[in-house]
Amino acid sequence: MARLFFPLIAFVFALLATPSVAQTKLDSLLPIRGFCIAAPQPKQLDTFIKFINEELAPRQVNTLILRVDFNYEFDSHPELRDSIALSKRDVKKLVKVCRQHNIRLIPQINLLGHQSWASKTTNLLRVYPEFDETPEVKMPEKYVWPNPDGLYCKSYCPLHPGVHAVVFALVDEICDAFETDAFHAGMDEVFYIGHEKCPRCSGRDKAELFAGEVNIIRDHLAQKNRKLWIWGDRLIDGKTTGIGLWEGSFNNTYRAIDLIAKDVMICDWHYERPDQTAVYFATKGLSVITCPWRKPGFAILQTQDMIKFRKSVTPVMKDRFQGMMQTVWSGAGPFLDEFYGVKVNTEAGDDTPSSCFKAMFGEIKRLSEAN
């Protein structure tokens, strides 16, 4: 009896582990179907896990990027923790639920840029002010844009001799905690780089500085077979394309596109127009994901474009068009309140992240069933 029973059990488990025809079809249509949001605070964890179970999994989301930054009880640098932060036990709950649903879980810590916000310096430069690319630029009591200093967000100096020992300790620890094979380094909207008053960076080529930072992070991750993901805006010529200084670069970092490793995953975000720059990244040899935010109509067009790109190019190019990812730029709590109708912004109408999320994944489902 045992001879029959155990092979039968093995067959059942193998059958359960085999992707369905529908799943294989969806993976062929869009290999990556992602969702990116700030990591929840501990009090929001149960609701967020409910959201994964009841909303992400049924929509066949297979990649979840959580913007962690300092929302974790780091052991390597406890001085950089947020005052309220996820514990290792909390993170393991996220790992478990994502594994149950075959969702690839990727943490993000903003590297290089976004080391401040509005009038607040965030944890890295607050604790280690010597890493600041522009220490002479003081944080204002009331932030406005534009301003005489050109201050949007602070950056760390990529050539400071001590900065990578600190940030790589954080990167390694969070990657281990999330049991991940990839890491998102942010690196968007870097306005301060190669600053004229920086004793290390002044006079250096800003494209080479940016590419150097991308590659050193990429090479560090590669030592443990992990892949680097970044936002793509600094690699687009904002002036020539007319895309502007937010979704593109006005400080010449865009030339770094020819200097970075080709296995870096590009998250190409466009929120006010459905710009087709995914084609640009793919022709440069980079894999790319298109990322909408709060415009449902644009998200539908971008989804259609991504599938059209995959169908209309050479086999070599096809694999570079990797898919779609909904982005959310609030905390997890406000998004969940919006999604579940606890707090609704009536002035926004349909132009909300939750509406965009539903529209994008609704279109993915429609196109999958139609193909």
TrEMBL record:
GO annotations of cellular component type: membrane
| A Pfam family this chain is assigned to | Glyco_hydro_20
**What start and end residues bound the annotated signal peptide?**
1-22
One BP term from GO: glycosaminoglycan metabolic process
User: Which reaction does this enzyme catalyse, per its entry?
Assistant: Hydrolysis of terminal non-reducing N-acetyl-D-hexosamine residues in N-acetyl-beta-D-hexosaminides
Catalytic residue list: E189 (proton donor)
EC numbers, comma separated:
3.2.1.52
Q: Name the Gene3D superfamilies for this protein.
A: Glycosidases
Protein name stated in the entry? beta-N-acetylhexosaminidase
